[in-house]
Specification:
heterodimer, A: mainly alpha, 9 helices, B: alpha+beta, eight-stranded mixed sheet
Chain lengths: ~190, ~220
């Protein structure tokens, strides 16, 4: 029962995210960096996180390569770092091929996040999450206070909003993770 | 007791190999995207590419201040001078005023260093719908352009605009609330053989000028 509900949410998130890459809604991501970086990219990742992948696949067949979710963590770090770069989101707007790649890779990334967090220890989660969220906060702050317009297709104002959004998302993710861990584990 | 660590620890070596491979491939992909850490922005990437591989200028048909029709690339080759080129539009209120000042300064420098036969300035409008021959003639007078040194052009055929912007790698965007046009166009250095050899920001105009004088 719970699996079906999660897949429904995943499906809704998928439709919302992909429709932003299709005309006419593509105009939203073309006009505002915040929509692409703080709405579409998180939605795509969320699609992957919510998706119910058969446990047999994760825990039996691919288990050997992904002890403690280490390979998954590394994959997600790479993918998310890639799509936070100004040059990548420029390319995603200008070339539809990059846009397709973005959609696929981020959904896959979301699936890997769920796998990684299921299999890993608290310390590993803290390490990777801490590293990634600090990077995200730093990039957000850089976009916010930079005098240079970093993306060729977005205005300076749009860039600053996107930066602010990134910082907000980083803080939200951190608090959600903290809350879910305090709720589920006893402190040890 | 069956704990998570008991289940996972058997496969550590395969995991490490897989993770290492993922990391290497990841770095390769990130490296290819950013030219190995040199450029995280499209503009930076474009400038590095031009530094390494100069590109030819498109031979588009333009109109000058006097209404004469000129082919861009042919004109540069025939003229046999280095060219410092920028883009503008006459109804620009905010962003372009600094460009005009800089080009005025460049014109003055060229005259004072007696480089009139070696260096030329070109300004091309990227709003050919509104900037016709009349508009650019007015602009030319307004900025005190010396026609032997500084030529102002507009596209003869407004449909060529996309080709012009594509070839120079320029993206023009509308900035709310007044729909001013913002763009990444800056200073372009073109050789007498009509090849784009360097792109710099407006602030680095002095560096560009010294690079140029070293080439002469």
């Amino acid at each position: 029962m719970k699996g079906i509900q999660r897949n429904h949410l995943s499906g809704i998130s998928l439709i919302l995210a992909i429709s932003l890459s299709l005309p006419p809604f593509r105009a939203f991501i073309i006009n505002d960096m915040m929509i692409q970086m703080d709405v579409q990219i998180p939605l795509l990742t969320l699609t992957g996180i919510l998706l119910k992948v058969p446990n047999k696949l994760i825990f039996d067949k691919l288990n050997r390569l992904n002890s403690y979710g280490l390979s998954s963590f590394i994959f997600t770090q790479v993918v998310l770092a890639y799509w936070m770069l100004p040059i990548s989101i420029d390319r995603a707007v200008i070339f539809w091929q990059y846009d397709v790649a973005k959609n696929f890779s981020l959904i896959l990334c979301g699936i890997n996040i769920r796998v990684a967090f299921t299999k890993s220890t608290l310390v590993m989660q803290l390490f990777f999450l801490g590293y990634f969220l600090s990077m995200m906060t730093w990039i957000g702050e850089f976009y916010l206070q930079s005098n240079e317009r970093l993306c060729n297709v977005y205005t300076q104002n749009s860039q600053q909003n996107a930066g602010l959004g990134l910082i907000f998302i980083a803080a939200t993710v951190f608090f959600i993770w903290m809350y879910s861990n305090i709720k589920n584990r006893s402190l040890y | 007791m069956l704990t998570k660590s008991n289940l996972e620890v058997k496969h550590l070596s395969s995991t490490f190999i897989c993770s290492a491979i993922t990391l290497v491939i990841g770095f390769l992909i990130l490296g290819l995207a950013t030219d190995f850490g040199k450029s995280f922005t499209t503009e930076g990437y474009r400038r590095h590419q031009i530094d390494r591989h100069p590109e030819s200028i498109p031979n588009l048909l333009l109109q000058n201040e006097n209404g004469q029709k000129v082919y861009l690339s042919d004109s540069i080759k025939k003229d046999n001078r280095f060219v410092l080129l920028n883009f503008f539009y006459t109804s620009c209120k905010t962003i372009c005023t600094s460009q005009t000042t800089i080009f005025d300064g460049l014109q003055g420098k060229i005259i004072s260093k007696k480089l009139e036969d070696k260096v030329r300035l070109i300004s091309i409008s990227f709003d050919p719908e509104h900037d016709d021959a009349e508009a650019i003639r007015k602009y030319s007078k307004q900025v005190d352009a010396n026609q032997t040194i500084w030529n102002i052009f507009t596209l003869q055929n407004p449909n060529d605009l996309n080709l012009l912007l594509d070839q120079f790698g320029i993206y023009v965007i509308k900035v709310p609330p007044f729909n001013d046009l913002d763009h990444n166009a800056s200073l372009h250095l073109i050789s007498p053989q009509s090849k784009l050899i360097k792109i710099t920001s407006l602030e680095d105009v002095d560096d560009l000028f010294s690079t140029l004088t070293n080439l002469l």
